[in-house]
Design goal:
alpha/beta, seven-stranded mixed β-sheet, two-stranded antiparallel sheet, 9 strands, about 15% strand, globular
Length: about 290
Amino acid sequence: MRLLIGLMWLLHWLPLPILGRIGNLVGDLLFLVLRKRRHIALTNLRLCRPELSEAERRTLARAHFRAYSRSVWERAILWWASPARLRRLIQVEAPGVPLAEIAAGPTILLCPHFVCLDVAGVAVMLESSLCSIYVAQKNKVFDAVLRAGRSRFRPVQLFSRKEGIKPIMRAMREGLPYFMLPDMDFGDKDAAFVPFFGVPAATLTAPGRIAAATGARVIPVVATFLPNFAGWRVRFYPAWDNYPGTDMVAAARTMNAFIEARVAEAPAEYFWTHKRFKTRPPGEPSFYA
């Protein structure tokens, strides 16, 4: 692992177009050799994009492997490049990071699982501290590098999912925005089966519950690749009106519908290799068997 991290440190000096193309080549290789992950991606695409032919879904899955691989190698720039270089490469669309909203009260920055989500985090941390959930990595060396890379500009409060939402709510009330990754399958606890591309998916109700408990604004943020290896685009969307209301399942559907619309804009960059439909309603068989 130390050798791999050393290699990534060396690669961060490369121009982004070269590093991005290396990522694409590695992604093509991974698509061929990671049969299990390829199966998961193709299964997700059959469920979510049934209008595509099998050949089209396979082409999209290959493009996703390239995008995911790129995001991993380009993370070296996020971890070690200078703030000046990052500001040149990260194009934050107007009106920019919502600092006024963050200063005005509790804020949830809701970031779906697109492959460039770490770019969105860096865009925020160049301007503001934040809090978030963090899953400790098994390799302690990699875990230390990952933590350092995500908190090198400003102090960041990272909480374990096992700690629950109380420390997050406390940090939000102290003025830290909550950078929330809401769209993975963590089982049926604190979740509801809500359609995602028409398929019931175990969807966290936490965004709505935390927003209701704290009075927080929910501001979505999505990061995607710029064309021609020019960098990344980060877009902060307007805060959701009348969210969450009183129906947490309806609030979860609002979130899923928003993510579906963003996936339509950058279909190869959504995290298709995650078992999004792993948890099934009682009696329903696994899609991934």
